[in-house]
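Lecture notes, continued. The same structure-token format from the folding unit now serves as the input rather than the output. Read the line below as a description of shape only.
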């Protein structure tokens, strides 16, 4: 008797590229040895997710007649968490939380679930990594012991779906997607095929039963584990939990949100008994700032709708190598090289024989153009060995010709700076002209990098 041959294809475990034949190097992401043979499912859910979310027999309806429950969100009561989600968890939404192993994802979600459970919603925490006893020990440490919080240690998706139907929780957490598998695929848990298929099934489960689902995914810096990145387009919301292991601060960042703003952040501190909210991040990021030292500048940045003051530190030293180094932590290094070149034009000294190190203190990452001026001033301050006034903040975008361009949300930045005791601000002239404020701050408008350098005493 002839058995039917199973159809297979090769999937890159890093980027999800598919090929009908094996190749040593993935033509999409250029990595070696990442293509793995996986079985093709004739009825793969992942391919049918979009058609299946409304259930069988959907017919077109007038948009004016469709009832929504968009207003109904579940608030966790953890302010930093709710803000990042756009004001709470939307019913039936699927949220992916990515982050390095050990950063605190399980801790955060167990705490959040417990809060939801204590407002009498039934919730289920599914761990594929820890036994229920281990989870209980963690829950005890976090005082997350609500009666409505249920725990399940399981890896099989089929069993999970069965238990979810039986328990009927409002919110579930899958910790983590890399440990889940469906019996329909032969490949190992954690492979791209399993991750994608498991997520697709969970999305179906969530949409058709109005269950909000959190999917935890580990991502390493190198993207070495198959993963969460390929799920980003399938889910409603993508959050990243980041931070430096050496620092206690953690930032929860929205990368995508179908139900709210996509660049909000929430700040947490990892303590002995779990994560606690940080209500005043600026104070914390600035509290160890050196005073009257060259190379340190404070910039009021916007993270979503929220202002955060960060300290930018620069160290410029003679290079020992043929090519000068431009090293930066917390800001894009291309931006730093570009700004160093702009600054070199305006200064009488050369930078081609100097290494430049730039750091945003406290392990924060900033990527808005308004920090440009702060970076330029920090580098100039270090080169000239002249400290900037400790009660002054700087912000503005810098162009290639050394012009200082306007940025947005000026009032909020100034208000936060004033609240933290800063007395003056150097900002783009175009912004200053249009500004009406009665804050007790001295404002100086500048339109070029040359003008800013005058403020280095
Ligand atoms: P965890 O939530 O297990 O990380 P992830 O799920 O992202 O892999 O967090 C693990 C780290 O957090 C571990 O290094 C110990 C630390 N931690 C605390 O400092 N305090 C606590 O109360 C808990 C539960 C963990
Ligand atoms: Mg974990």
């Amino acid at each position: 008797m002839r058995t039917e041959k199973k159809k297979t294809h090769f999937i890159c475990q890093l980027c999800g590229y598919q090929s009908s034949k094996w190749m040593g190097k993935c033509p999409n992401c250029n990595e070696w040895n990442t293509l793995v043979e996986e079985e093709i499912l004739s009825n793969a859910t992942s391919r049918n997710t979009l058609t299946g979310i409304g259930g069988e027999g959907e017919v077109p309806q007038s948009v004016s007649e469709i009832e929504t429950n968009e207003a109904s969100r579940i608030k966790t009561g953890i302010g930093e968490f709710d803000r990042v989600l756009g004001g709470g968890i939307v019913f039936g939404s699927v949220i992916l939380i990515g982050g390095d192993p050990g950063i605190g994802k399980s801790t955060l979600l167990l705490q959040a679930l417990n809060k939801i459970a204590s407002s009498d919603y039934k919730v289920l925490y599914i761990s594929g990594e820890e036994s229920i006893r281990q989870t209980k020990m963690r829950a005890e440490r976090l005082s997350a012991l609500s009666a409505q919080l249920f725990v399940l240690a399981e890896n099989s998706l089929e069993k999970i779906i069965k238990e979810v139907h039986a328990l009927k929780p409002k919110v579930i957490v899958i910790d983590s997607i890399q440990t889940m598998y469906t019996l329909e695929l032969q490949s190992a848990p954690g492979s791209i095929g399993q991750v994608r298929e498991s997520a697709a099934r969970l999305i179906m489960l969530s949409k058709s039963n109005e269950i909000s689902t959190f999917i935890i995914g580990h991502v390493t810096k190198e993207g070495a584990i198959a993963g969460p990145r390929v799920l980003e387009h399938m889910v409603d919301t993508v959050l990243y939990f980041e931070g430096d292991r050496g620092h206690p601060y953690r930032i929860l960042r929205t990368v995508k949100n179908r139900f709210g703003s996509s660049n909000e952040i929430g700040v947490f501190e990892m303590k002995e008994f779990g994560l606690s909210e940080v209500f005043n991040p600026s104070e914390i990021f600035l509290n160890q700032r050196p005073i009257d030292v060259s190379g340190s500048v404070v910039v009021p940045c916007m993270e979503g709708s929220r202002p955060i003051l960060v300290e930018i530190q620069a160290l410029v030293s003679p290079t020992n190598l043929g090519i000068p180094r431009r090293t930066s932590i917390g800001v894009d290094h291309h931006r730093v090289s570009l700004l160093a070149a702009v600054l070199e034009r305006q200064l009488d000294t050369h930078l081609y024989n100097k290494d430049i190190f730039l750091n945003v203190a406290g392990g924060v990452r900033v990527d808005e153009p308004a920090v440009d001026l702060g970076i330029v001033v920090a580098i100039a301050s270090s080169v000239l060995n002249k400290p900037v006034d400790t009660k002054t903040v700087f912000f503005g975008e810098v162009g290639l010709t050394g012009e200082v361009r306007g940025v947005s949300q000026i009032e909020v930045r100034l208000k936060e700076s004033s609240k933290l005791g800063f007395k003056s601000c150097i900002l783009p002239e175009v912004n200053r002209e249009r500004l009406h404020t009665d804050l007790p701050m001295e404002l100086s408008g500048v339109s070029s990098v040359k003008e800013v350098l005058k403020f280095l005493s």
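Point for the exam: Residues 99, 101-107, 138, 141-142, 270, 272-274 surround thymidine-5'-diphosphate (ligand 1) (CB under 6 Å).
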